[in-house]
């Protein structure tokens, strides 16, 4: 079907795409015959949602047809819905734009829930497009039918439940007669009116959902009922969406709020900034330097903060763990300023809950958590906007030895840390030391939850390493899938470090045809949930081994072979050093390194570490 330039221009105006810079061409493109599917696909394009992760199914066939036949979209096929949602979330984590996941009806969309909840608490824009049965086919005993309306409850920022197209809308659009309304012109017009109302409602709901996903940077759910036939295709769109204006996120600086903070800030001699999860390069270097130049400011960072300066304080637990009450009192801040997402360190949480600051301000565009039960103010700005507004108005810094005192403590702890590493046997601790020292330059590190992220926190990572971890709900599910999605979207090579249980729990993540060849997985296999050996409890009993630590004898070797990964394994320091020398070399396939460590030594090595540095 050839279309001239004037026709294409009219199409762009008709669908509101010209305003938003899209080049819409309908030349020989296949569309689902169902107007509702056409509407969803067209409006996703209008909102510039390019990445579409599809899990195969029948009820979602109209959406699959629409997305996969349009070169505007990059479509991925991931069979396991739980893996698919985390994979999509990994892409969205990197590009900071909405990514859509598409599934069939029934239990499929329930498998998205872990990723939806993680996206909700991590503020990652995930768009769930779930196909559904028409109302008259629900609760009649048919398979794969559940109550899909508002299924995610309060874990999404918007739930859109679309309306089914009227059955004969295609005949009406083509001017054919509808049998039930034959020779009844007034009823025919009413029919047209009903369909127009449905189309208007659906367009509005889709626009609202996609706009909120972008503005609130979080998950939304669009539930889409389809009636059979599901696979019919056409070359011309039968819809005509109304033009609309895309909304941009706007930050409003409250000058009164800023000024109310200034006097308190300038006169305080002990100011602590605690940074949780944050995107790389979220704060300009000039503001980082200005904070570092203030002797009354301590900046505590975590590996997931992606914030670096020689005068900042990474490795929080190294500093906090050995302190006595007198030291805690000296560290207690007058002002606590928190930035970013959730904090990993339990020790800093315990400290600030007991030794509360006089004032606690949280700077975040979306949410403020009262983690330390002392929150006074939520400043609804991005950290960079806040500092660029606030710091130029700071006229003087209070004289203080707050930072210099704790820099001395930090240097002492770092020396003791290095001394301890030289004394320990092969273990998780020693393996992490070697792994993190040998990461490729200008690379990205994805870290699994539980013990993996907590070990990583103890080490000082190079400035050039970006670090990500699913700290919204802090679950072990989906970490591998998220890392693979991130590797697909990132321009940097990605290494994923995981514990054994987390890896095996999400092993379907490797059932994926999109994994880059330079992607690397490192598994610390201590034959169970080693972190539970660190926690209080009765260890070395059958009950503990079975129900807490979950002992096993699995290895990732067979999985690696099945999914086309290069596999290697080590169980001592010498072999690990040798393997890491070539592990990141370019090859024809992604690689997996499995490190076997002694489960009965790991907890002893870690617990003795905190005694040693004290």
Describe it.
The chain is α/β, with parallel strands linked by helices and 614 residues long. It folds into three domains: 5-234, Thiamin diphosphate (ThDP)-binding fold, Pyr/PP domains (Rossmann fold), CATH 3.40.50.970; 255-407, TPP-binding domain (Rossmann fold, 3-Layer(aba) Sandwich), CATH 3.40.50.1220; 424-613, 3-Layer(aba) Sandwich (Rossmann fold). It is 39% helix and 14% strand. The protein is built from 23 helices and 19 strands. The chain has a six-stranded parallel β-sheet with strand order 3-2-4-5-7-6, with helices on both faces. Strands 15-14-16-17-19-18 form a six-stranded parallel β-sheet, sandwiched between helices. Strand 9, helix 9 (285-292) and strand 10 form a beta-alpha-beta unit. The protein is globular and about 80 Å long. Residues 1-27 and 169-178 have low confidence and may be disordered.
């Amino acid at each position: 079907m050839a279309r001239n330039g004037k026709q294409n221009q009219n199409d762009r105006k008709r669908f509101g795409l010209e305003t938003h810079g899209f080049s819409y061409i309908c030349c020989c493109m296949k569309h689902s015959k169902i107007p509702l599917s056409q509407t969803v696909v067209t409006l996703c394009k209008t909102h510039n949602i390019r990445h579409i992760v599809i899990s195969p199914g029948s009820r979602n066939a109209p959406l699959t047809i629409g997305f996969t036949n349009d070169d505007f979209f990059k479509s991925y096929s991931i069979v396991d819905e739980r893996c698919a949602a985390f994979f999509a979330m990994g892409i969205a984590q990197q590009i900071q734009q909405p990514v859509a996941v598409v599934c069939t009806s029934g239990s499929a969309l329930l498998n998205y829930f872990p990723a939806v909840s993680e996206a909700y608490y991590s503020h990652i824009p995930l768009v769930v497009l779930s196909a559904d049965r028409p109302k008259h086919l629900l609760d009649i005993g048919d398979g794969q039918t559940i109550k899909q309306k508002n299924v995610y409850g309060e874990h999404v920022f918007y739930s859109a439940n679309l309306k089914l197209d009227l059955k004969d809308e295609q005949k009406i659009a083509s001017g054919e007669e509808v049998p039930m309304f034959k020779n009844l012109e007034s009823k025919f017009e009413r029919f047209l009116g009903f369909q127009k109302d449905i189309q208007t409602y659906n367009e509005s709901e889709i626009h609202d959902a996609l706009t909120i996903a972008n503005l609130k940077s979080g998950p939304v759910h669009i539930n889409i009922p389809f009636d059979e036939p599901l696979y019919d295709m056409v070359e011309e769109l039968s819809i005509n969406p109304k033009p609309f204006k895309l909304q941009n996120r706007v930050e409003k600086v409250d000058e009164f709020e800023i000024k109310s903070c200034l006097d308190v800030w300038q006169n305080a001699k002990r100011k602590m900034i605690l940074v949780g999860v944050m995107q790389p390069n979220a704060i300009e270097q000039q503001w980082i330097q200005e904070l570092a130049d203030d002797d009354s400011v301590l900046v505590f960072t975590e590996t997931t903060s992606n914030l670096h300066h020689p005068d900042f304080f990474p490795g929080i637990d190294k500093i906090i763990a050995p302190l006595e009450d007198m030291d805690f009192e000296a560290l207690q801040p007058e002002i606590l300023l928190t930035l970013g997402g959730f904090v990993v360190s339990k020790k800093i949480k315990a400290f600030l809950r007991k030794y509360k600051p006089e004032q606690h301000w949280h700077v975040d565009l979306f949410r403020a958590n009262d983690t330390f039960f002392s929150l006074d103010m939520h400043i609804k700005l991005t950290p960079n906007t806040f500092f660029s507004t606030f710091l130029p108005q700071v006229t003087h810094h209070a004289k203080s030895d707050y930072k210099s005192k704790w820099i001395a403590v930090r240097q002492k702890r770092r020396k003791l840390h290095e001394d301890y590493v030289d004394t320990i046997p092969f273990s998780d601790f020693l393996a992490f030391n070697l792994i993190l020292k040998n990461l490729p330059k200008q690379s990205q590190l994805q870290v699994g939850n539980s013990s993996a992220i907590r070990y990583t926190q103890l080490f000082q990572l190079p400035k050039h390493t970006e670090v990500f971890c699913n700290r919204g709900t802090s679950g072990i599910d989906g970490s591998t899938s998220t890392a693979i999605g991130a590797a697909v979207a990132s321009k940097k090579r990605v290494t994923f470090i995981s514990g054994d249980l987390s890896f095996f729990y999400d092993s379907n993540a490797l059932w994926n045809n999109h994994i880059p060849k330079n992607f690397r997985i490192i598994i610390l296999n201590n034959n169970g949930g080693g972190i539970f050996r660190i926690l209080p409890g009765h260890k070395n009993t059958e009950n503990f081994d079975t129900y807490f630590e979950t002992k096993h004898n699995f290895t990732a070797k067979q999985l690696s072979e099945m999914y086309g990964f290069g596999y290697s394994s080590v169980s001592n320091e010498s072999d690990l050093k040798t393997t890491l020398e070539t592990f990141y070399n370019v090859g024809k396939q992604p690689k997996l390194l499995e490190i076997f460590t002694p489960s009965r030594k790991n907890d002893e090595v870690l617990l003795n570490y905190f005694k040693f540095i004290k």
